[in-house]
């Protein structure tokens, strides 16, 4: 079985500062990893995904994530955040036609 | 590509009535679709997994007779909330596994308010 842990429920950060949102997963099989963003009253939008190959994955809006198999992590990073990045971020793992989400991290960018 | 459309985006209904929510994959065929429920400031709670042409698989604690799921075609899954009550008010989101069966693409969600 797979599971996802997002340790930080809320992350406040000043505008133009860097940010890292943490995600750890557990799985007994090979998995695919994802980060999604959710703006208020909207569905989820795919930010980036890791399927195979290079462990550093670049996504939309300047976000990137690094897959670390030994640490079973897939942390999301952005070197300089913008006010418009304020949203809920979900890490997810998939395998065997199932999707498992973390509890989400609320990112608040402070002007 | 890989667009999922969910309709309606917002609905208000009277207590005791039924509401149907549609989830369509617009430019791909989706063998597997998921239905989620989300409470304010919380994560997505998987309600059921829907596979085309077969009965949906419900998560523990989800009433299958209350939340009817139909996945009659490769591009459409529906969730019907039967005899809705105020406690069913929530944000419902569907997703579909994309063409390669790996990535999930989400609808825009449906805000259901039962009065």
Q: What are the main properties of this structure?
A:
heterodimer, A: mainly beta, four-stranded antiparallel β-sheet, 0% helix, B: 115 residues, mainly beta, seven-stranded mixed β-sheet, 53% strand, globular
Assembly classification:
heterodimer
Helix content of chain B: under 10%
Q: Catalogue the unreliable spans of chain A.
A: none
End-to-end span of chain A in angstroms?
41 Å
Most extensive interface between two protein chains, with residue counts: A-B, 22 and 24 residues
Helix-strand pattern of chain B, N to C?
EEEEEEEEEEE
- What distance lies between the first and last C-alpha atoms of chain B, to the nearest angstrom? 37 Å
**What coarse outline of chain A follows from CA principal-axis ratios?**
globular
Instruction: Please bin the fraction of helical residues of chain A.
Output: under 10%
How many helical stretches of chain A?
A: 0
Main beta sheet of chain B: 7 strands, mixed
Cα Rg of chain A: 13 Å
Description:
The complex is a heterodimer of chains A (111) and B (115). By secondary structure, chain A is mainly beta. Chain A has no helices and 12 strands. Chain A has strands at residues 3-5, 10-14, 19-21, 24-26, 32-38, 44-50, 56-58, 64-68, 73-78, 87-95, 98-101, 105-110. Chain B is mainly beta and 115 residues long. Helix content of chain B is 0%, strand content 53%. Chain B starts with a strand and ends with a strand. The mean pLDDT of chain B is 92.
Task: Give the SSE layout.
The complex is a heterodimer of chains A (111) and B (115).
Chain A: E1 3-5, E2 10-14, E3 19-21, E4 24-26, E5 32-38, E6 44-50, E7 56-58, E8 64-68, E9 73-78, E10 87-95, E11 98-101, E12 105-110
Parallel strand pairs in A: 2-12
Antiparallel strand pairs in A: 1-4, 3-9, 5-6, 5-10, 7-8, 8-9, 10-11, 10-12
Chain B: E1 4-7, E2 10-13, E3 19-25, E4 32-38, E5 44-51, E6 57-58, E7 67-73, E8 76-81, E9 90-97, E10 104-106, E11 110-114
Parallel strand pairs in B: 2-11
Antiparallel strand pairs in B: 1-3, 3-8, 4-5, 4-9, 5-6, 7-8, 9-10, 9-11
